[in-house]
Structure formats: C-alpha cells, structure tokens
Amino acid sequence: MNVFEYWFAMIKRFVGISVFPTWKTITLGVFKDRDSLLKEVKERGFGLSDEASYMMDRPEFAVSPTKTDIDLVACKLAQLGIESGTPLKVRQRARRLGLYPCPAEVALQLCLILCPTKTEPDPPKRLRYGGVPIVVSEPISGPPDRWGKHLRVFEIWCDEDGPLKGPRFIGSTDGDPRGLWTGEGTFIFARRPLPQG
Predict the structure, then answer these.
(1) Is the pTM of this model over 0.90?
(2) How far, in whole angstroms, is CA 35 from its chain's centroid?
(3) In a structure prediction context, what are the per-residue pLDDT tens digits for the chain, which is 197 residues long?
C-alpha cells in the first residue's frame, strides 16, 4: 500500500466504508471456562509452548461468559501502510483504519476453526517460523526471564503444508509496546471492538 492508497483507505474509513474484508467469523463464549477450551484445543492436536501455557494461566486471559460473534481480518503490515513497527504503533495504525485488538480467547478459537479435525500432536521442531498468524490482542504478561517480565501475544505455528496437514502449535511472540513487528507475519485483527458488559 503506497501513500496514496493509505490516505484513500483513511478517507473510506472516515465515511464508514471498510477497506478490509472479513476473513473469518468466530463465536466466543462457546466454552464454559478456560480449561474446557484448552482441552478441546489439545484434542485437536495442538501443542503449546511454555510461554503460551503461562499466558493462559494469567488473569488477563479470559473466556467470554456469553456467546458473541466476532469478525476477523487477516492482513500484512503493508496493508496498514507500514513496513514494520512496534506492537503499539501497529495497533494504533490499525485502529485508524477501523481494526481493533482481538480478545485473547480468539487465538484458541481460531485454532479450532482452522483445524476442524483431530490429529496427534507433533513436535514443534518441523514448524515454519516465518509468516505465522499473529493474533493481535492486548498483550499478556509472559514468564519472567533474566531481563524481567515481557508482554506477549499468541501466534499459531504450522508447517509448510498448513495446519490441516502438518504440525500444529500455539506459541507467543513479542507484544511489548517497545518491541518490533516486521512485515513477514499475517496479523489478525477484529473488525470492531468486543461489546463491554
């Protein structure tokens, strides 16, 4: 997206026309709690990194108490008019174009939509690390290391054949406001903010 296309997108957004088509629609609140959702994800053959498991135990990770449909958009950073940026800058730029952070539950629900059949879990060593879907949400505290605690978001890893044929794994990536996201990944946003209450 060049400068002209970006400003054209901004004008369309201002007059209420979305420039991003809906990629997937998922329903939150289908599971009664985190444990039942996590059990289903594992039964579908997804492994979890230690960081992802830690994040799911944090109070910031919550399952919606009511059923709510949410439209998702998948895009590259170039479609937001930037080549790279901090997670904070990416969220701010996306919001100007009518895209919003997803609830953290979206990462797990998305795995169930992408992989409707069950498989045996595979080790993550065969996974492809470039271009993985990053679910843009408000960041969650990751496990502390020698530099302290870091804010992180979920990403979904699969091999070159895609999640229906190869290994499935839920990991995490840097979500700290001062971190760096580059144009390699696919970024998942919500079309509108989740209703409060």
Answers:
(1) no
(2) 20
(3) 556 566 656 655 554 445 788 999 999 999 999 999 999 988 888 888 889 999 999 988 989 999 999 999 999 998 888 889 999 999 999 999 999 999 999 999 988 887 777 765 554 433 444 457 889 998 898 887 766 678 899 988 765 555 455 557 888 888 888 888 887 778 999 998 766 54
